[in-house]
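quick one before i forget lol
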Amino acid sequence: MRALVQRVSEARVTVAGRQTGAIGPGLLVLVCAMQGDTEANATALAARVARLRIFRDDLGKMNRSLLDTGGGALVVSQFTLAADTSRGHRPGFSAAADPATGERLWRAFGQALAAEGVPVEWGEFGADMAVALVNDGPVTIWLER
């Protein structure tokens, strides 16, 4: 699985004018299931995200995690993280999991993150979403598991 993690002071997702999820300080996590991924990948990635030390401590160093800060996570499906841009100008997405598997593993990731003790809010799988965020830093990290 792949995730693009952004440290935010706030983030929200709306679909057709309806808010599906919103957080204050925490992480916006864009998640993509790849072909061959399993629930074990989702669980392992969630554990990494929960413990990723990218929040400032009292000295201003990136030394605290979501678990340390009590921040939330806004989990958004993002199959375009599977983009292959090695040929031509149009990305290919054949490395992404099929939609049914992608949705199952996206949910498994969010549920595993919640099981770690992180408050989780959601985007909407397969929807045309408007994602609004205020980057904090900015800090953006690419993870694969």
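fyi The chain is about 25% helix and 40% strand.
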